[in-house]
Structures are given as structure tokens and as C-alpha cells.
Fold this protein.
Amino acid sequence: MKKIISLVLCLCLLITALPLSASADENFDGAYDAIVKGVLAFDERIYIDQYNISTADFSELFNVIVANEPLLFNMKMCYYGSSGTKVAYMRPEYVMTQEEYNEAMVFVNAEVEAILATIPEGLDDYETALYLHDYIALNFCYDLTYTIRTIYDFLKEKTGVCAAYTFLYDELLTRIGIENYAVRCQSLNHVWNEIKINGNWYHVDITWDDPVGSTTDVTDKGYYARAWHDDFLCSDDKIFATHATDIVTKYACTDKSFDNLSWKNSYYPVGFANGNVYVLDDDNISLLDIKTDNTTAVFDADYEMHRSEINGRYYMNLPYFGSYDNKLIYHNGESILAFDPIALTAKTLETPVTDNKITLLYVSGNTVNYIIGTSDTKAEGEFKTLLLTKGLAGDIDGNGELSALDYIMLKRAVMSGIELSVSQDIWDVNADGLFSLLDYITLKRVVMGTYVLN
């Protein structure tokens, strides 16, 4: 019988995620696994005739694979050959060589594992899903050129469209054992995740929880350093009300217990430390139970709030927490501080000399990024950074130990008046609040073994 060759494209911005509705003799699962295995092996032809996939259903199957397999970024489209009404084989078109893909996968694996390594200990699955949601929203931006959609390019460029957000969240959740699936809405040309926790499925749309600002400059985040939570752990009813009604899902999301919790109305991230979740509640740092909405004040943060209007919407100077070394990094408008949830104390890391306020702060890795000005955008303020270490006073080079190099670097900085990028608790070795030669002298004595810090 004559074979017909057809073309299936996966180039569009939206990756369709349709539920499978195979006929009795079609083996979608078998064909799915064979195609994924073949694409990863860079096979020129992947034979699936034994799975009895009809030509009418092949596009559906292919689109589901593309939407739910983030690591198939080596392929952009495929052709298929048919015999009668059945697909005999698939012929992928690859966008890179196997060697290039292997190199790309080294990068992807390293980046994904690095993100997973930042997850604080002691979080349950709900809290872990929230942490990864906020991490992506804070460290990645929406691609206003609408061109970046693979997990590989997303991790490289730190910007992408909704498919890229969906792919990265998918891969992170999959690696820690949280089941998830891609959801699509044709009228919105949009995709997001639904995830399964404690037996229930929920919608999570990180793209919509990561607001796009008024500037296309995504290199410094600025306005972008927000993580909204309106579309985190939502039921079908909630998503239908806020998105559209032509949403195609695979699993029903019937649990409404997270739909109307008040903490989800915040426009800033929550904090994670000591196995718990925290919010800035009025001027207190408070423990948050994300399941019950209950908060318990644990520390007076002395937070000075003021309002600014951006694009017709009012914002406070954002009370954002960042996690580092099991501490919560925050600002009170005047200073950057680190709150220890075990000791219930806060230590000042930096007090900028300025007449303006700190209006925004976010932490990426060991770097505190903050803005000083009259609003929370870089365009209207000064963008600054502060490097964090594990808290060893005098460890200027940040290698975790004290050496002659540390006091030499400190002496040169003091003598030349250069501002060090490490926090005050690192350079203020004698703890007098002043950047002076006494810090160098104290550190040298410590390294020489003639003095012990308290």
C-alpha cells in the first residue's frame, strides 16, 4: 500500500496539551514511550506501526508529548509516514546535533540541580511547590519578544514565554516526585501546569503570577522582582473565572481549599527558613500556615511602609524576604537585615548612606539586589547589590575560611576607600560599625592566632 508522508509542526508559541482519547486498539502509552526514547536517541525514523495510532490522532499524541517532555528541546517538528489510516513511523527534525544536545543537557542538569539545591529543608510538598513557584517568578522574566520557549533557552537567557515557565516548573517538580501535567487555553494562547499534591490536582500558572513591568529591560529585574500567588493551587472553578472557559485539562482540580486564602492576595514573595514559611504581616515577621491562612507574629521587624503609584496601581515598598543560610533577608526601608528564626534576632547587614528609602529587595543565590529611590523600579532609583556569605566575620574572599588573603584584601579596601561588596557583618571584624584599619588589624591578629573573636 502506498505510504503518505505528512508534516506535524511544533513551532507555535502555544504548545497544545490535549487529553488523549484513543480508540480501543490504539496504544497511546506505548507510542508515547517509543517516540520519547527515539527522539532522545536522535533516531532518524521512529517506527510506531505496532501501536495502531491513527493519522487522525497522531497530532494529538505528538502535541501531548511536546507539551509534557521538557527535555525534548532537540526537536522542532516532525514528519510522519502512514499506511492507510495508521501512522507507520515518525521522522523528527532536529535543531541540534547529538553532541550539541549532550552539552546542552549538561548545562540544563546543572542549572536544574542548582535550583533544587536551594530548596530549604523541612518543607512539605505544598510549601516546596510554593518555593519553586516563587523562585521561578523572581529569577526569570517574561520574554516580550515571544521567541524563547524551551527549558534550555529559558535557563540560559532567564526569560521566556509561558511554555518555558511551564517546562521548567514541570522538570523541577518531576525531579522531586511531584506529578504534573500541561494545561492549555486556546483562546488565551496560553499554557500552565496542573500539579498533584496529597491526592488532589491544582492549577499553577507561574506566568500570570510573574507580572510584566513597564520596561523591557529584564537584566536587572527591578519591577520584575515579584511573585504573585493568585494562580497558585487553584481549582477548576477559580481558573475558569480568571482565565477563560475553553481550558483543556487532563485531571479535574476539584479542591477549592486554597482558592480564597488571604495570603495569596499579596504582591510579594513569602519567605522560607528553618522549615517554615514566613510573611511580613503589618510590621511583624510572622509564621504562615499556607493551608489554613493562620499567621503567628514572631518578631517586630520595624518595617516602615510607604506607597508609590506605578501604572495606575499602588504599591508599598515591597516587604520581600530572601532566604540565605537559613536566615530571612529583608529590609525595613533604612537597612538590609538578616533575621535568624531560631534565635529570633535580626542583624544589620548594610545601611546605605542615602536620603532615600530602600524600596525593593530580592535575593538570588548569595546576592542581595535592592533599589534605593522613590519607587520600586530601577528607572526611578539606584540599583545596588550586596554579596552574602555564610556569616564568617573576616571572610572577605568568601571561601569559608580566614587567611592572609582576607586581611590583605581588607587592608587594601580600607586604605583606598573602596566599598566592599560583602555584608557589614563580614568586613566589620571588630564589630564597632566602622570601616577602618582596626578591622584589618583585628583580622590579621585572628589569622596569626593571637586573637579570638567573640
The longest strand covers residues 75-83.
